[in-house]
Amino acid sequence: MFLLTAIFAVAQIDRHILSISLDAIGQEFVLSDTQLGLLSGLVFAAMFLLAGFPIARLAAHGNKRNTVATSAAVLSFLTSDDVGLAELYASRSCTVGC
Fold first, then answer.
1. What is the pLDDT of residues 26-82, one digit of tens each?
2. d(CA 50, CA 42)
3. What is the phi-psi region of residue 83: left when phi exceeds 0, alpha when psi lies from -120 to 50, beta otherwise?
């Protein structure tokens, strides 16, 4: 239970840190306001729609331990080295499964 709480806490912190640091991210990667809006809103919502339901179905009908372990591994991988806009989009989508 502690591990699940820790994973949830990291996912929540990830969501809030992005909102707080959007200006710095925009300056670092030379992003327009439209791209920043997509990063913080539309991309997350689209990935939640595309990945959230299949992951929930997998967790409901499959092995919950493996689903959580895989989601945690993907979260760790995607948030370890954000290099460009595509990677930022990918790291935002990871919070869906975790």
1. 888 888 888 888 877 887 778 778 878 888 888 888 888 888 888 877 777 766 655
2. 12
3. alpha
